[in-house]
Fold this protein.
Amino acid sequence: MKFLAHRRRKPWVATALLAMALLVVGGGYAAVSSTAPAEAAMGSQTQVEEGKRLFLEGCSSCHGLEAQGTMNGPSLIGVGAASVHFQVATGRMPMAAPGAQAPAKEVIYTDEETAAMSAWVASLAPGPAIPTAEQLDFSDADVAEGGVLFRINCAQCHQAAGGGGALTNGKYAPSLMNATPQEIYEAMLTGPQNMPIFSDETLPVEEKQQILAYIDALQQAPSPGGLSLGRLGPVVEGLFMWTAVFAALIAAAVWIGIKAR
């Protein structure tokens, strides 16, 4: 014990212990970080190389030759395959022109090309992966609970019926009525445009599935009364009726005036 205590008082002992601790921590981090990109690539080397070729042709002018970002586009390092798949598979990328927000438009890449670009970007650094079929399966999810979660986390922008809504400075939350479960799940994972990121730590897979179930119920809900009017409630329906009634009264007054001449 006296021997150890004597050794601890030596300055070089503390330095050596610190160096060993740094070596262990650094080695462990290197091992984890070297395997994570390989797992995130989710594709063969051929697919990754094809994805890089497509990226250089269609995306590098804004995002840089190595996806490092430029003045015209953000860095894609660490965004993951899910982000690339969402943006490209919905036609939001490549953007036709700079604007407040990238709108969904006609898709120009095939599913295979989109998967290849997603694989290449995923190989650069770990990030959210494309959701699996198990994650997208909401057949056993609680729709009512999904409605509660949607109203807490999503309705402020997308409104309670998922019809979308205006934000600031020309931005908007898009309607979810034509969105697929994969698009919605990837949006929750990656937070595109002005949307916050809902990671699995913030919103577990089970809760994401419940939200998917609620949105699917909205998409499938019939409108037995006629026009849905966005399902915004009696205020909108009443305003529509008043507008229609006043329009009919004005038309009748004009018709009577013409006939009275």
The first strand starts at residue 165 and ends at 166. The longest helix spans residues 11-41.
